[in-house]
Design brief:
CATH superfamily: MFS general substrate transporter like domains
CATH architecture: Up-down Bundle
Helix content: over 70%
Number of helices: 17
Largest sheet: none
Distance between the termini: 38 Å
Number of strands: 0
Shape: globular
Structural class: mainly alpha
Order of helices and strands: HHHHHHHHHHHHHHHHH
CATH class: Mainly Alpha
Number of domains: 1
Length: about 400
């Protein structure tokens, strides 16, 4: 019998991580799908719901750092399982919202805590431990769950939104989290016994404080800050922007879903490339591509250009996610992999909330997104230059 090139336990880890991000990825982008019908029904400004997104980004960002630290020291089952329960309850209760503060509390705070715990950072720690040699590609495969979830779940929910209404979107998302819980708990390996821990090589590297004394650490934070700023501006507003430019609600919702498909292609390519040439060039080209499409919609906002913008931006959307663990491992070692990747992702998400909120404020003030596109173009160019600045010697192994 031919021996499997990948151990069964590692395949189970990939499956569990993929499913966590599949459901969580679809759920977190649902607010962009429901933004327009919610504000139209209640007569809110877009910035009022944009505030819920901004709070979500900040709270989930803080949770990412805490979850990463817990993943370094305690049970991944506890972190991921608890996150799924909190996420499912909170997103399901979103169908009862009637005031802006309800959305801020449920989506912005409680769902953010659960989604941050059952998300990229602890999943990345789990996968990196299971795949020390092919870290970039393995993380890319798992993180593609976010893109597939965005494609499959958002496409399905777009149809639900048109036929039943936006409240049903949140009911189905809550149910999906709860159905996933027993599968994930059964799949994630338990904590190793004392003998296994003694036989496992010690993880080495810099502490968070030591890493913060390096130039590379601050460059990484700036790159991921700009990445988040653009990511969540687009994911929050692209459906509404497409509808503003004459694309009907169903097609606009499916456009967000198709961004998940192109994101799948981008993340797999970036993970494969990073294992062979390092993470710098995939990151730099990601931001150059963004600059190009932001320039496109500054000069032409026809339905064709909006579609090209969404699909090309989608190609870049998940690229930096699997690169985070590679950047941290290569630069600072693995002893505090969860804490450092959590901190970097926290900055990404905080700036994502700022981007989503600024986009809403600009639209409310001008009835267009043009000024936001200029800001995003400049920021993307800066991020490409900063990413190239990460070339050079590694700080720790």
């Amino acid at each position: 019998m031919t021996k499997l090139p990948i151990p069964k336990s590692a395949i189970i880890v990939l499956t569990a991580g993929f499913l966590v991000l599949f459901v969580g990825g679809g759920a977190r982008f649902a607010i962009g799908l429901t933004l327009k019908p919610m504000v139209d029904e209640f007569g809110w400004d877009r910035s009022q719901l944009g505030m819920a997104v901004a709070v979500f980004q900040i709270v989930s960002a803080a949770t990412l750092y805490v979850a990463g630290t817990l993943a370094d020291r305690f049970s991944l089952r506890l972190v991921l399982g608890g996150g799924l329960v909190a996420s499912g309850i909170a997103i399901g209760l979103m169908n009862f919202v009637a005031e802006p503060w309800h959305a801020v509390a449920l989506y912005g705070v409680f769902f953010a805590i659960g989604n941050g715990a059952a998300s990229l950072t602890p999943v990345g720690v789990m996968v990196t431990r299971a795949f020390p040699e092919k870290t970039g590609f393995a993380n890319a495969v798992v993180f593609s769950g976010m893109g597939v979830g965005q494609l499959v779940m958002i496409a399905a929910l777009a149809a639900v939104l048109v036929t039943i209404g936006w409240r049903s979107v949140f009911i189905w998302l809550g149910a999906a989290h709860m159905l996933l819980l027993p599968l994930v708990l059964a799949a994630i390996p338990g904590e190793p016994d004392a003998k296994t821990r003694a036989a496992t090589p010690a993880r080495t590297g810099l502490s968070v404080a030591e890493a913060a004394h390096t130039r590379r650490f601050w460059l990484l934070l700036l790159v991921y800050a700009v990445c988040g700023f653009g990511d969540f501006f687009v994911s929050t507003h692209v459906v509404a922007f497409a509808q503003d430019r004459g694309i009907n609600a169903l097609l606009a919702g499916n456009l967000l879903a198709l961004m998940g498909l192109t994101g799948l292609l981008g993340v797999i390519a970036a993970g494969y490339w990073s294992d062979r040439a390092g993470p710098v060039w995939p990151a730099a080209l990601c931001f150059l591509a963004r600059a190009v499409v932001f320039a496109l919609v500054m000069v032409d906002q026809s339905p064709l250009s909006v579609t090209i913008f969404a699909l090309v931006f989608g190609l870049t959307f998940l690229i930096t996610a699997p690169l985070t663990a590679v950047f941290v491992r290569d630069s600072f070692g693995t002893r505090n992999l969860g804490a450092l990747t959590g901190l970097i992702t926290m900055v990404h998400h905080v700036c994502g909330g700022i981007g989503a909120y600024i986009g809403a404020r600009i639209f409310d003030a001008t009835s267009r997104y043009d000024i936001a596109f200029v800001i995003m173009l400049v920021a993307s160019g800066i991020a490409a230059a900063l990413a190239l600045g990460l070339r050079g010697a590694r700080n720790a192994n």
